[in-house]
Amino acid sequence: MEIKSVSVIGAGTMGNGIAHVFAMKNFKVNLIETNNALLEKALSNISNNLDRQIKKGSITESDKAETLSNISKIVGVENIPSESDLIIEAIYENRGAKLNIFNKIQNIVKPESIFASNTSSISITELSVSNRPEKFIGMHFMNPVPVMQLVEIIRGYSTSDDTFNTIKNLALKLGKVPVEVFDYPGFISNRILMPMINEAIFALMEGVASREDIDTVMKLGMNHPMGPLTLADFIGLDVCLAIMEVLYNGYNDPKYRPCPLLKKMVAANKLGRKSGEGFFKY
Q1: Residue 40: active-site member
Q2: Using 50, 70 and 90 to split pLDDT, how confident is the model at 129?
Q3: Is 120 a catalytic residue?
């Protein structure tokens, strides 16, 4: 199956980044949100990110204009074009909310359409059980999407080889590096990354070192581009907590227990960059 029309549900950080990379490769993209204000904000972010690429000399003004012309705004998931070849869900990490979206569009889009979720930790098998499981797959892009090369491609229990190969080849067309991952909680990236972040938060809570020094150790000692506490703020502490809870419940293993300090900060709405304060102030 050739993918020509792509619908991205959710125009937040990940959704607008996914729309950006598809539109740059001349795919027709339908960007879907609950209201026009969110869509305008997303297109403004995409425009700003394209301007950064122009300054770096990687694209031209005409490339920017063509990219933006490839994106259509759609308010309401019920208005998704029926001819969409690929639907990528990129909303917040909540199993029920994701299932609700896929259930809504199941009978709107054509039977040949492939369903994909950008979930960073939730089971693809569970999301696909009532929604064309053989045509359901995980496409976990990394943030920021236009910059990061990796895409984890997650097979659900019933994902067909044809669906997998279509999405793998599509990722290559986007200039990404696809990695095949099977459907276990957290996949690979977050199964390794989030416990590291969680342990850094435990170290801070226990007074082992200051937040600055914890980050410095990982940057200078392990050559990480940013420390785990700064990274947690960048990701969003609520997202980190949600992923840790998926790992904890999915494996039933106490090594994935979310740090009490992380839970307390989320309860206090100290979520990182998006709220203006997390482990650091912004």
Answers
A1: no
A2: confident
A3: yes
**Which entry of 30, 70, 117, 190 is annotated as an active-site residue?**
190
Residue 227 to residue 147: CA distance in whole angstroms: 19
Q: How far is the C-alpha of 188 from the C-alpha of 138, rounded, in Å?
A: 13
* 222: three-class secondary structure by DSSP: helix
Which is catalytic among the residues 16, 30, 93, 140? 140
| Candidates 33, 89, 93, 152; catalytic one | 152
Phi, psi of 275 (to 5 degrees): -105, -5
Q: What is the mean pLDDT of the chain?
A: 96
152 a catalytic residue: yes
> For 140-150, how does the pLDDT look when each residue is reduced to its tens digit (9 = 90+)?
999 999 999 99
C-alpha separations of 124 from 137, 253, 267 in Å: 7, 21, 28
CA 97, distance to chain mean position in Å, is 15
Q: Band of the pLDDT at 130, cuts 50, 70, 90?
A: confident
| Per-residue CA distances from 106 to 90, 98, 101 (Å) | 16, 12, 9
At 2-11, the pLDDT tens digits run 899 999 999 9
> Which residue in 120, 123, 128, 198 is the catalytic one?
120
